[in-house]
């Protein structure tokens, strides 16, 4: 509800500056409250004594609980993860993007979702450049509900549906004359490729900020967006299962929303890693009461920065370092090529408009390349092959073919890597 969301806004702004010790004590209390609730009300957790033995005495004890993997969430009946004996009328429903081809329905209770929405305001304010009166265009595959405050020309959000033809997307976007542009990197890259020099100049006349979200933003992509759009670029990391995970401040720190989520970094076997080490990310969104997810393996790879951001916020900072852990090609000798390897080719290689990679169950790698209109196919493919062998630190069996377009997942994201070989590794 809007009133509750409005009341949460100042709370979320204050909490990001709470002393580190105070934040840790609050997190421990909130996580224990969620674990007690889940052990009593949620069938999946009630079936395991681990979740109800005793309150945690320290946040490090959270690592004694099992990792919840996406396969478990997909394969178990959804009712196993939903809280019993609660009012479900105010729950918010989301579907995961389906980048693996299988989507999952996720539920959030009204209170935690309102707190998330309130916390999103600090995402914009943290840039030090955003004004609530700015016109905002949001490139995404679904339409969000209108908000009450937009009637007063505050935080106006104009959704441009990405499932429409590009000519319609461009016309609607340019007609809105946005001062802020938000989108997934795959959509922003496609937009840049489609804009003429005149259209890009028209967009740049009003544009003041660009926000990326949901997908990995590599340094190369950030540089490309900054140069092409001519404005600062700020990153945000979220997932439908846990909502916002981090937001970027004016000093470049990507701050974990630690007043609603706890993030861990673990190795491939689920063992905790120290700050600064790269590993798989686990997220516990401890405000949730509809569908609590404890130590949820979100599928991404990153590291928590051991240094604190000079902006003064006490929330730790997190960096996504590679593509999704699921979006990886494993070669016969054990070498791994993550999605950002292929993203580099797609974004920067001369003559390449887009690419996607498929690895079959036998481990064979097939890369499909969408060429720029004026590109000469044979030299481009030869150069791509040579570049990939450099990035992979040596040759491997690779088939290169010409394609017409990039496949899109059920959730509207570009399908960059798909591997059937992972199941056997």
Q: Using DSSP, what is the number of strands?
A: 19
| Number of helices, where a helix is a run of at least 4 consecutive DSSP H or I residues | 11
Q: What fraction, in percent, of the residue positions are helical?
A: 25-40%
The CATH topology label of the largest domain is: Rossmann fold
Shape: globular
Q: What is the residue-averaged pLDDT?
A: 88
Q: Describe the main β-sheet briefly.
A: 7 strands, mixed
Give me the CATH architecture of the largest domain, please: 3-Layer(aba) Sandwich
Structural class call reads alpha/beta
Can you identify the CATH superfamily of the largest domain?
ANL, N-terminal domain
What's the structural domain tally? 3
User: Which stretches of 5+ consecutive residues score pLDDT under 50?
Assistant: none
Spatial sequence of strands, sheet with the most strands: 4-3-5-6-7-8-9
Rg computed from alpha carbons, rounded to a whole number of angstroms: 22 Å
CATH class of the largest domain: Alpha Beta
Distance between the termini: 47 Å
- Residue share in β-strands: 15-25%
Order of helices and strands: HHHHEEHEEHEHHEHEEEEEEEEEHEEHEE
Organism: Actinoplanes friuliensis DSM 7358
Keywords: Ligase
InterPro entries: ANL_N_sf, CapK_Type1_Caps_Biosynth
GO molecular function: ligase activity
């Amino acid at each position: 509800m809007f009133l509750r969301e409005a009341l949460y806004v100042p709370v979320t702004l204050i909490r990001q500056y709470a002393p580190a010790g105070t934040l840790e004590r609050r997190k421990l209390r909130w996580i224990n409250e969620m674990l007690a609730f889940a052990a009593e009300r949620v069938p999946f957790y009630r079936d395991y004594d681990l979740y109800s033995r005793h309150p945690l005495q320290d946040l490090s004890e959270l690592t004694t609980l099992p990792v919840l993997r996406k396969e478990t969430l997909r394969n178990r009946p959804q009712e196993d993860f939903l809280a019993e004996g609660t009012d479900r009328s105010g729950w918010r429903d989301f579907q995961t993007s389906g980048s693996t081809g299988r989507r999952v329905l996720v539920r959030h209770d009204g209170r935690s979702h309102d707190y998330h929405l309130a916390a999103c305001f600090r995402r914009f304010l943290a840039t030090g450049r955003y004004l609530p009166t700015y016109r905002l265009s949001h490139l995404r595959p679904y339409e969000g509900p209108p908000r009450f405050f937009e009637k007063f020309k505050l935080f106006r959000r104009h959704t441009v549906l990405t499932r429409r033809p590009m000519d319609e997307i461009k016309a609607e976007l340019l007609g809105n004359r946005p001062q802020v542009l938000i989108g997934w990197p795959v959509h922003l890259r496609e937009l840049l490729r489609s804009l003429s020099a005149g259209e890009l100049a028209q967009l740049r006349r009003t544009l003041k900020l660009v926000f990326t979200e949901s997908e990995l933003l590599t340094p190369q992509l950030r540089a490309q967006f900054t140069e092409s759009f001519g404005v600062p670029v700020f990153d945000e990391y979220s997932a439908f299962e846990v909502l916002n995970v981090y937001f970027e401040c004016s000093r470049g720190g990507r701050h974990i929303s630690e007043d609603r989520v706890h993030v861990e970094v673990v190795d491939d076997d689920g063992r905790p890693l120290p700050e600064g080490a790269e590993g798989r990310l686990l997220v516990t969104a401890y405000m949730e009461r509809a569908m609590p997810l404890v130590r949820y393996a979100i599928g991404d790879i990153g590291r928590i920065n051991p240094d604190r951001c000079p902006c003064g916020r006490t929330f730790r900072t997190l960096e996504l370092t590679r593509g999704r852990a699921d979006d990886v090609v494993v070669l016969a000798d054990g070498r791994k090529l993550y999605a950002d390897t292929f993203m580099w080719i797609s974004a920067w290689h001369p003559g390449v408009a887009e690419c996607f990679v498929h690895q079959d169950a036998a481990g064979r790698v097939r890369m499909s390349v969408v060429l720029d209109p004026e590109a000469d196919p044979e030299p481009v493919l030869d150069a791509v092959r040579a570049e990939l062998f450099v990035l992979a630190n040596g040759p491997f069996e690779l088939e290169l073919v010409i394609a017409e377009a990039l496949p899109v997942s059920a959730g509207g994201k570009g399908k960059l890597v798909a591997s059937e070989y992972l199941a056997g590794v």
